[in-house]
Amino acid sequence: MLKTNINKLRVLGLLEGISYLLLLGVCMPLKYLMDIPEPTSYVGMAHGILFIAYCLWVIIVAVEVKWGFGKIFWALLASLLPFGTFLADVWLFKPEKSQ
Asked: Where is the DUF3817 domain (predicted)?
């Protein structure tokens, strides 16, 4: 499954999206509502690493597949929005799977 760069990007997008939702939906409420800050540092660090890897991999795939500026813009913007990477997988990355 991870033989092509586009499939690696899809997996990174999935992991980055899950880490973002965990950070926003679980860790932040634990930190601010229940005064338990520890999970935020671990999940936050993992999310930061996955975010950087996702952005770098978008650039790698864009150069390899020769994406236009618009597609690069939407793929990078997806990493900033909750559920964005899941939508990017369906709308931007899936059609490239056959290449």
From this structure: 7-92
